[in-house]
UniProtKB/TrEMBL annotation:
Protein name from the UniProt record: HTH-type transcriptional repressor YvoA
Keywords recorded for this protein, A-Z: DNA-binding, Transcription, Transcription regulation
Transcription keyword on record: yes
One GO-annotated biological process of the protein: negative regulation of DNA-templated transcription
Family matches, as SMART domains: HTH_GNTR, UTRA
Source domain of life: Bacteria
Record gene name: yvoA_2
Length: 242
């Protein structure tokens, strides 16, 4: 029977070993790692395999690689947090979605301008309600620039998360997601949908996805019930792969 060690790729074992040295303090912040040739000799592996391990460490945020200089240990940036909107919700419970409406708004220059869209003024609006069990927890409204000849399936509208929806519908490649989190009082219609008191504050999550050149492709606004929805954020997130 093969052992777990034999099943793990060699480059992964290299990355895991270096990660353990960083977390144990054996490799210090800013310290230069051995060269690819030195690591290859030490671990008995090829330079190509070393590069794969180094790439995994860089992806995990554990090292910075500077061309012509080498790879340097990076201390985890604990003041930088990444929010996982797709897996946020309440107590790790699976959320359920209900599609409320889909509309195509043509030639509304005011709406397009408010959303930051330029040129094409027609906008697709998608509204859905998120549930935890039988309780509504959030309202999500998405605004996409209309692309003629690129239809959206009902399953995409109901279940796809916002970045995925933008990527499927737009011809341009999404390259950045800017998110602003704020608090606002519920409007009467929002309170009705969330089965809440109008005076309650709500968590508002606004996302804007951009293409290269700061061209906005889509806007999402989520209104979340203060007692039924939670955001999850973590620093140093990708190192969990190791």
């Amino acid at each position: 029977m093969k052992s777990r060690e034999n099943l793990i790729p060699v480059y992964y074992r290299l990355a895991e070993d270096i990660k353990q040295q960083i977390e144990a303090g054996e490799l210090k912040d800013g310290e230069l790692l051995p060269t690819e040739a030195q690591l290859g000799e030490k671990y008995g592996i090829s330079r190509m395999t070393v590069r794969q391990g180094i790439a995994l460490l860089a992806e995990a945020g554990l090292i910075d690689t500077i061309k012509g200089k080498g790879s340097f240990v990076t201390r985890p940036r604990l003041n930088q947090l990444i929010i996982d909107l797709k897996n946020s919700g309440v107590n790790d419970e699976q959320l359920r979605y209900k599609l409320l409406s889909v509309n195509l708004i043509r030639n509304n220059l005011k709406l397009a301008s408010e959303l930051g869209f330029t040129g094409q003024s027609s906008v697709i609006t998608v509204k859905r309600l998120l549930f935890k069990g039988a309780q509504p927890v959030a309202i999500e409204e998405k605004f996409l620039r209309y692309q003629k000849g690129k239809p959206l399936l009902e399953t995409q509208l109901e279940y796809a998360d916002f970045p995925e929806l933008v990527a499927k519908h737009q011809e341009s490649v999404p390259v950045r997601n800017d998110t602003v989190i704020s608090v606002a009082a519920l409007l009467p219609e929002q309170a009705r949908l969330l089965e809440a008191d109008e005076v309650l504050p709500a968590l508002v999550i606004k996302q804007v996805i951009y293409a290269k050149g700061d061209n906005p492709l889509g806007v999402s606004i989520m209104i979340c019930h203060k007692d039924r929805f939670e955001l999850k954020a973590t620093s140093y997130p990708l190192s969990g792969r190791l």
